[in-house]
C-alpha cells in the first residue's frame, strides 16, 4: 500500500540530514513557536478544558468499541438522505471507486479539499494514472503540489517553506497549472493569498466534481463535517454537481450533540483559534448535489485490534502534538517519511502498515526499515500526550511499538545474556566483580554494531566495586 | 465476502472481548450570563470583522450606512429577508437589488458587490455565526462568492456557547459556521484574512 513516501530511508538517516538544514530549522522554529503561543492562550480561556478532553476521549473510545454498529447507522442515515455509501478495504479499492465515480461523470478534472485520507491512499497519483487531474485548493496543499514537494505537517503541509520560497514557487509554477502569478508578486502573505485566490477562482467556477475528506461523520444523522479556514472547502463542497468524500472509518461520532465537544477541542488545538473561519456540515445530497461517501479501512481495523495501539484511532488530526514535539521541531515532517509526521505519525504509520500484527516469534520480519525506526523518533518526553485533545498516550504506544519492532540478532543475544545475568543475584554479583577487574580493557568506543551507540556517547566507567559489595564491606558506610 | 462485510467482520473480531465504554451523557449547557451580546460583538471583532450593535428598529439605517461605506452598487438579497432590511438595501441610492429567483449562477454571484443576510444562530463565546440556508439566508453559495457579506444577528439568536448552538440547530439542513472573514494560517502559521470566501465580513447585532 501507499502511505509512505516511496524510497524513504529510515528516520535516523532522514533526521541527520534534516538537522543540517538551517533554513528548515529556522522555518520550523518560527512556525511552531507562533502556534504554541496561540494554542496556549485559547486553551487557557476554557475553564472546562480537561473535562472537554475527557469527554472527547470517552466519545471516541465508545465509538471505536461499537464501530460496526455506528457505521451501519451512518450508512442508513446517509442513504436515507440521498447519498450513496461505498466501502473500501484498502487504498487500491478506494482509489478505484473514486476513479470510477469520476469517470462516470465524464469529467477529467476534479478539485480537492485538503484531506489526509486521500493523501494516505495516494489518490492524486492513482487518478493521474487514469487520466484525471486533481487540483489541490488548500493554500498549503497548493504550495506543495506546485512545488512538486511532499507534505510535512498535518495542518500546514508547507510549514517547511517560508514566504520567499513560496513566492518563488508561485512565480515559477502557477502558470503551468493555470492562471499565472502576477508579475509584481511580493512575499507579503496577503499578496500570496491574493495570488492563490485569483489562480483558483476560475477553477472553482468551472469544476463539476469535487473530492473531500471529513473531520467528523455523525452516525445518528448521517451528517458530514468539514472544518477549514480559506473558503476553498466551501467552494468545493457547494459548487460542483458531484461531491465524493473519502473518510476513514474512525472519523465517526455517535450523536449530533457530540459535535459540540469536538468543535471546541479541534480549532483550539489546531490553529489556536476559538473557532476556525468556516465549518460546513451537510447530510446526504445537499441542495441537489450528487453525493458519494467512501468509507476507508486501509489498516485501521488492524490498529483497532491492538489493545494498546488502538487509542491512536482517537486522533482528530489537529497536529498539536507536532507543534509541541522537540524532535519534530528540529527534523521537520519529511524525516518521518509518511503523510502522518510527528508523534502521531510515529505511532500511526507503523500500525496502519500492520506492525502490531508482529508476534514475538516473528521478530518483526516483514516490517519496513522506516516503520521499524519510527517508534524511536521520540525522546519520550510526553509533551505530545499533554497537548493531545483526545488524550492519546503517545509515549505508551511508542514503547509498546518498540517491543514489536524487529531487533537485530546481536541485540537480541545481548538482551538474552543480560536477562540471564539479572535473573539471579549471584550471577549479577559475579558479573559485576568480573567487570570491575577487567575495567581497564573496556574501550571508549564500542566495536561492531555497538559503534552506532558510542558515536554520540561515552561508554560509562565501570566502578572498581559494586554498590552491594561496598555496602557489605563498609556495613552501609558506617565502617 | 464484499468489502463492507469484510470490514465489519474485521471490526467485530478486533473489539471482541474489549470492555464496553459508556457514552458520556451530553454535557449540561452553561447558564446564560446576560452578557452574550457584548461578548459576541467583541469576539466577532477579534477576527477582524466589522461589528455594529443597533437598537431594534434602527438596523435599517445601519445597513444603509454600511452599504454606502462599502460603495456597494449591486447587492444580493436572499428570499425571506425581513422586509425592513430588504427595504434598507432597496432604498439605498444607486444600489441595485439582485434576487436569487431564478437561481443565480456562481459566475453571476461572483460579479456582485455583496450580499445581505440574516442567520440561524450566533455563538457568543466563539464569535460565530451559523447559517442554515433558511429564509433570509438563501443557498450556501450566496454568502460564498460575493466578496462582501453583511450579516444581521438578533440578540435572541445568540447562544452562550457551542453546546447550546449545536442543540438548537437542525443537522438535516446544510449548515455553514462562519467565524470572521476567510483566512489562512498556511504561510508561516501567521493568520492572514481574505482568501477564497468573502474578504470582508460586517455584522450588525440587533440588541
TrEMBL record, chain A:
Residues 73-288 form the LUD domain. SUPFAM superfamilies: 4Fe-4S ferredoxins, NagB/RpiA/CoA transferase-like. Keywords: 4Fe-4S, Electron transport, Iron, Iron-sulfur, Metal-binding, Repeat, Transport. GO terms for biological process: lactate metabolic process. InterPro entries: 4Fe4S_Fe-S-bd, 4Fe4S_Fe_S_CS, FTHF_cligase-like_sf, Helical_ferredxn, LUD_dom, LutB/LldF, LutB_C, NagB/RpiA_transferase-like. Residues 403-474 form the Lactate utilization protein B C-terminal domain. It comes from the Bacteria. GO terms for molecular function: 4 iron, 4 sulfur cluster binding; metal ion binding. It holds the Pfam family LUD_dom. Residues 312-392 form the 4Fe-4S ferredoxin-type domain. This is Iron-sulfur cluster-binding protein. It comes from Planobispora takensis.
Automatic annotation (TrEMBL), chain B:
Gene3D superfamilies: NagB/RpiA/CoA transferase-like. InterPro entries: FTHF_cligase-like_sf (IPR024185), LUD_dom (IPR003741), NagB/RpiA_transferase-like (IPR037171). Residues 109-206 form the LUD domain. It comes from the Bacteria. It holds the Pfam family LUD_dom. PANTHER family: LACTATE UTILIZATION PROTEIN C. This is LUD domain-containing protein. It comes from Planobispora takensis. The lineage of its organism: Bacteria, Bacillati, Actinomycetota, Actinomycetes, Streptosporangiales.
Amino acid at each position: 500500500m501507499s502511505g509512505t513516501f516511496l524510497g524513504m530511508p529510515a528516520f535516523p538517516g532522514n533526521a541527520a540530514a534534516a538537522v543540517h538544514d538551517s533554513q528548515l530549522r529556522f522555518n520550523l522554529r518560527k512556525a511552531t513557536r507562533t502556534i504554541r503561543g496561540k494554542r496556549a492562550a485559547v486553551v487557557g480561556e476554557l475553564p472546562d478544558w480537561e473535562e472537554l478532553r475527557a469527554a472527547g476521549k470517552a466519545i471516541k473510545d465508545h465509538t471505536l468499541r461499537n464501530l460496526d454498529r455506528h457505521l451501519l447507522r451512518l450508512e442508513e442515515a446517509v442513504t436515507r438522505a440521498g447519498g450513496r455509501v461505498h466501502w473500501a478495504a484498502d487504498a487500491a479499492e478506494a482509489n478505484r471507486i473514486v476513479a470510477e465515480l469520476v469517470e462516470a461523470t465524464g469529467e477529467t478534472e476534479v478539485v480537492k479539499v485538503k484531506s489526509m485520507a486521500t493523501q494516505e491512499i495516494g489518490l492524486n497519483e492513482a487518478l493521474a494514472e487514469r487520466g484525471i487531474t486533481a487540483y489541490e485548493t488548500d493554500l498549503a496543499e497548493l504550495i506543495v503540489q506546485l512545488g512538486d514537494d511532499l507534505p510535512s505537517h498535518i495542518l500546514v503541509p508547507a510549514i517547511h517553506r517560508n514566504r520567499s520560497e513560496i513566492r518563488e514557487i508561485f512565480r515559477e509554477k502557477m502558470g503551468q497549472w493555470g492562471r499565472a502569478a502576477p508579475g509584481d508578486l511580493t512575499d507579503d502573505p496577503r499578496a500570496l493569498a491574493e495570488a492563490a485566490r485569483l489562480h483558483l477562482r476560475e477553477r472553482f467556477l468551472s469544476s463539476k466534481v469535487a473530492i473531500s475528506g471529513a473531520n467528523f461523520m455523525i452516525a445518528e444523522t448521517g451528517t458530514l463535517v468539514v472544518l477549514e479556514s480559506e473558503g476553498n472547502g466551501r467552494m468545493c463542497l457547494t459548487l460542483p454537481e458531484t461531491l465524493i468524500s473519502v473518510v476513514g472509518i474512525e472519523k465517526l461520532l455517535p450523536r449530533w450533540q457530540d459535535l459540540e465537544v469536538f468543535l471546541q477541542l479541534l480549532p483550539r488545538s489546531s490553529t489556536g483559534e476559538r473557532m476556525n473561519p468556516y465549518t460546513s456540515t451537510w447530510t446526504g445530497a445537499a441542495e441537489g448535489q450528487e453525493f458519494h461517501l467512501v468509507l476507508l479501512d486501509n489498516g485501521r481495523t488492524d490498529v483497532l485490534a491492538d489493545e494498546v495501539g488502538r487509542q491512536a484511532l482517537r486522533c482528530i488530526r489537529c497536529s498539536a502534538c507536532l507543534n509541541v514535539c522537540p524532535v519534530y521541531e528540529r527534523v521537520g515532517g519529511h524525516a518521518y517519511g509518511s503523510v502522518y509526521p510527528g508523534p502521531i505519525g510515529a505511532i500511526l504509520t507503523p500500525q496502519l502498515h500492520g506492525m502490531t500484527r508482529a508476534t514475538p516469534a516473528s521478530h518483526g520480519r516483514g516490517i519496513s526499515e522506516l516503520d521499524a525506526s519510527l517508534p524511536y523518533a521520540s525522546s519520550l518526553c510526553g509533551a505530545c500526550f499533554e497537548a493531545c485533545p483526545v488524550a492519546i498516550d503517545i509515549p505508551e504506544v511508542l514503547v509498546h511499538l518498540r517491543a514489536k519492532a524487529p531487533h537485530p540478532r546481536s541485540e537480541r543475544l545481548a538482551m538474552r545474556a543480560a536477562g540471564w545475568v539479572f535473573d539471579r543475584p549471584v550471577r549479577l554479583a559475579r558479573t559485576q566483580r568480573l567487570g570491575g577487574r577487567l575495567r581497564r580493557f573496556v574501550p571508549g568506543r564500542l566495536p561492531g554494531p555497538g559503534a552506532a551507540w558510542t558515536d554520540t556517547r561515552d561508554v560509562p566507567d565501570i566502578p572498581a566495586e559494586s554498590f552491594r559489595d561496598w555496602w557489605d564491606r563498609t556495613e552501609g558506610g558506617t565502617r | 465476502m464484499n468489502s463492507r462485510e469484510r470490514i465489519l467482520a474485521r471490526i467485530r473480531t478486533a473489539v471482541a472481548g474489549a470492555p464496553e465504554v459508556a457514552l458520556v451523557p451530553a454535557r449540561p449547557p452553561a447558564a446564560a450570563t446576560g452578557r452574550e451580546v457584548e461578548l459576541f460583538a467583541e469576539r466577532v471583532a477579534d477576527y477582524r470583522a466589522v461589528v455594529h450593535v443597533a437598537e431594534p428598529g434602527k438596523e435599517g439605517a445601519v445597513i444603509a450606512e454600511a452599504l454606502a461605506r462599502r460603495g456597494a452598487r449591486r447587492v444580493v438579497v436572499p428570499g425571506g429577508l425581513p422586509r425592513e432590511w430588504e427595504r434598507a438595501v432597496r432604498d439605498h441610492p444607486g444600489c441595485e437589488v439582485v434576487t436569487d429567483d431564478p437561481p443565480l449562477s456562481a459566475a453571476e454571484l461572483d460579479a456582485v458587490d455583496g450580499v445581505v443576510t440574516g442567520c440561524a444562530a450566533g455563538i457568543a463565546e466563539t464569535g460565530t455565526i451559523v447559517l442554515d440556508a433558511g429564509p433570509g439566508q438563501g443557498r450556501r453559495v450566496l454568502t460564498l462568492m460575493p466578496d462582501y457579506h453583511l450579516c444581521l444577528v438578533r440578540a435572541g439568536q445568540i447562544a452562550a456557547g457551542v453546546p447550546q448552538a449545536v442543540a438548537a440547530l437542525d443537522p438535516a439542513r446544510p449548515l455553514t459556521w462562519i467565524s470572521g472573514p476567510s483566512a489562512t494560517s498556511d504561510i508561516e502559521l501567521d493568520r492572514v484574512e481574505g482568501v477564497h470566501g468573502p474578504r470582508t465580513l460586517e455584522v450588525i447585532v440587533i440588541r
